[in-house]
TrEMBL record, chain B:
Lineage of the species this protein comes from: Bacteria, Bacillati, Bacillota, Bacilli, Bacillales
Protein name in the entry: Cytochrome c oxidase subunit I
Domain Cytochrome oxidase subunit I profile: 17-491
Family note: Belongs to the heme-copper respiratory oxidase family.
PANTHER family, per the entry: CYTOCHROME C OXIDASE SUBUNIT 1, CYTOCHROME C OXIDASE SUBUNIT I
Location of this chain's protein in the cell: Membrane
CC annotations in GO: membrane
Keyword Transmembrane on entry: yes
Superkingdom, taxonomy of origin: Bacteria
Membrane topology: Multi-pass membrane protein
Pfam families: COX1
Entry's Gene Ontology molecular function annotations: cytochrome-c oxidase activity; heme binding
Alphabetical keyword list: Electron transport, Heme, Iron, Membrane, Metal-binding, Respiratory chain, Transmembrane, Transmembrane helix, Transport
Biological processes annotated in GO: aerobic respiration
Length: 53, 552
């Protein structure tokens, strides 16, 4: 019985749309951009190194 | 209503005076150093020639020492003492204040000694004071006093922390206090090797008691300290980012555990990594260098955690204020509030700065940029932009809090102008430095065209961009000091908030994060692993030492 109501409650919660404030899509894209900048600069200078080695 | 001031005080008077004493020495050093910095840019750009009573390396030493060692250390201690007071009930108890003042006196005597020897041209050894360049013994004694004095600032923080824990058994410490303690655990351990270098190598040698010095060992001890030094600058800026900025924008700390975990990782991986500054040195084997490089790159983890945390705080706050869509929240941030704007621009600078750091630490690419002005460009966007802009942003509210005054609308607007000048100046100067460095332009070099070599002549345009950026920076520095002077002595009296954010709901932070013996133990283990054998090698297979050299 206990378990059923718990599960029920969890399902109700999952169905409710996430409040807008918990939406972190922008954050996700932003950190991906940071990662991309790191990779681009690293390979840029590595290219210079290979060109001069 | 007649509330007692204790309930309302942000920071009580005696603590405020202590903190203010630190902050103002910081800005005095900063002002002088900014003048030197502008001159360096002008000299390198061929725009001015220095008078015969000084020389490039003397002002370069003054700039490096005053900015990187004096400005930062004083500001950090002043800021953290105030925040620890604020978050543990509004004041420091007598013992902590006594320790704080003792430290201030020791540091100030040390600073005076170092500055005098630089001014008399007896210490043009640059801020890294590498042997075998030899300065006056008073320069090293001054440096030792500065370091020992700074320990007392740490003791003051530890003492307040102990008192708080005694009175709040079983509770998790406030985030600001936890982060300050981590910062000073790092500082106390990191400064031991440099104290050993100064006390047992440099001072006896500069006094002539020992004829020669083990250069390799001295550099190893220096960088054992030198890398955690940069985290010591960064962590207080992170404290402002994690704890103060969220409150300024009306938001919350995103995750308490994540913030604490980031700080513990910074502590652990700040020290077993110094060889990334010595990648081009003979006398350390490639294997040990590789181990240090791998441990260095782990810092990507807490750095990206911090980036995530910042964006998450901004996004949740912006959405609550009605921002919609993928990036609508971005527009809802308080863009005209300098307390947010200055540290935010600092965060932006930290993105290319972090990328540059990974480049510097990669062995092959270090060969491309080592000792070029790329490196100088790198640390001007880390400490000179990300950290400095954050400290400026903090000062705009901290000084009014400490003096019981208010940041007026006009002062805020002037602060915005100041931030723009500093940012544009730093962008131009550092961009030129990075670009020139990739072409091979050396750092730490007086004006020269290398006998009109075409390659070096091609650098001149960018050196002038550097000089122009330096000019803007100097204007920003003067403006900053004027605004801070106004906030200290003239701004209208009133209540200013000390911004301290909390998490939105109660969060469960793993208690292990506050078990210091565990973390200090792991750190010591890492240090012994990373440095034990290489230092033993440098002691047993030491090359013939070097006599002192004076190049100026
Ligand atoms: C007014 C703003 C500033 C200007 C115009 C400026 C300019 C410069 C220039 C032109 C150099 C010398 C490049 C060379 O010949 O190698 C330099 C070096 C340096 N700067 Fe700055 N800088 C400024 C702010 C800062 C700040 C805020 C910090 C740190 C908190 C800082 C730390 C340093 C350090 C550590 C060096 C290296 C000294 C050495 O190589 O021994 N600077 N700066
Ligand atoms: Cu480093």
């Amino acid at each position: 019985m206990e378990t059923r109501t718990d599960t029920q409650r969890q399902m109700d919660k999952a169905k409710k749309p996430q409040p807008e404030s918990q939406n972190l899509k922008g954050t996700f894209i932003a950190v991906l951009l940071v990662g991309a900048i790191i990779l681009l600069s690293w390979f840029g200078v590595f290219g210079l190194f290979l060109g001069r080695a | 209503m007649n509330h007692t001031t204790i309930g309302q005080a942000q920071v009580d008077r005696p603590t405020a005076r202590l903190s203010l004493a630190y902050v103002w020495v910081a800005y005095a050093a900063f002002g002088l150093a900014a003048l030197a910095g502008m001159l360096q840019g002008m000299v390198r750009g061929g725009l001015v020639e220095l008078p015969s009573w000084t020389n490039y390396y003397q002002i370069l030493t003054a700039h490096g020492v005053l900015m990187a060692l004096i400005f930062t250390t004083y500001f950090i201690i002043g800021f953290l003492l105030s925040g620890v007071a604020k978050t543990t009930g509004g004041s420091l108890h007598g013992t902590a204040r006594g320790l704080g003042w003792t430290g201030w006196v020791l540091m100030t005597v040390g600073t005076a000694m170092a500055v005098v020897t630089i001014v008399t041209n007896d210490a043009s050894v640059l801020y890294t004071f590498y042997a075998p360049l030899k300065a006056s013994p008073y320069f090293y004694i001054g440096a030792a006093l500065l370091v020992v004095g700074s320990w007392f600032g740490g003791f003051a923080i530890f003492s307040s922390y102990r008192k708080w824990r005694r009175e709040n058994r079983g509770k998790l410490s406030p985030l600001f206090v936890y982060m300050s303690v981590t910062t000073f655990v790092l500082w106390l351990i990191a400064t031991v090797p440099v104290a050993v270098e100064v006390l047992f190598q440099l001072i006896p040698w500069s006094l002539g008691w020992t004829p020669s010095i083990n250069v390799m060992l001295s550099r190893t001890l220096f960088w054992f300290f030198g890398h955690p030094l940069v985290y010591f600058w960064l962590m207080p800026a992170y404290i402002a980012w994690y704890v103060c900025v969220p409150r300024v924008i009306g938001g919350h700390v995103f995750s308490d555990s994540l913030a604490r975990l980031a700080f513990i990782s910074l502590l652990l991986f700040s020290m077993p990594v110094g060889f990334h500054h010595q990648l081009m040195e003979p006398g350390i084997s490639a294997g040990w260098k590789m181990i240090h490089v791998i441990l260095t790159l782990i810092v990507v983890v807490p750095s990206l955690m911090t980036a995530f945390s910042m964006f998450a705080t901004f996004e949740t706050t912006g959405r609550k204020k009605g921002g919609v869509g993928l990036f609508g929240w971005f527009k809802k941030l308080p863009w005209s509030d300098v307390r947010f704007f200055a540290p935010f621009v600092g965060m932006l600078f930290f993105i290319p700065a972090g990328a540059g750091g990974i480049i510097n630490a990669s062995n092959q690419m270090n060969a491309v940029v080592h000792n070029t002005i790329f490196v100088t460009g790198h640390f001007h966007i880390t400490v000179g932009a990300a950290v400095a802009l954050t400290f400026f942003g903090v000062s705009y509210w901290l000084i009014p809090v400490l003096t019981g005054r208010t940041l007026t609308r006009t002062a805020n607007r002037m602060g915005m102008v100041q931030t723009v000048f500093w940012s544009v100046g730093m962008f131009l100067m550092s961009f030129a430095m990075h670009y020139l460095g990739l072409q091979g332009t050396p750092r730490r070099t007086d004006y020269t065209t290398y006998m009109d070599h075409p390659l070096a002549l091609g650098w001149m345009d960018y050196q002038r961009v550097m000089a122009f950026g330096g000019g803007l920076l100097f204007v920003a520095a003067v403006l900053l000091i004027l605004i801070l002077g106004y906030l200290t002595f003239y701004a209208p009296k009133g209540k200013t908030e000390y911004p301290i954010a909390e998490t939105e709901a109660e969060q469960h932070t793993p208690r292990i994060l506050e078990r210091w013996p565990v973390w200090v133990g792991v750190l010591l283990f890492l240090i012994v692993m990373a440095y034990g054998i290489p230092i033993a090698d440098q002691l047993t297979h030491n090359p013939p030492g070097s006599p002192p050299i004076r190049t100026w």
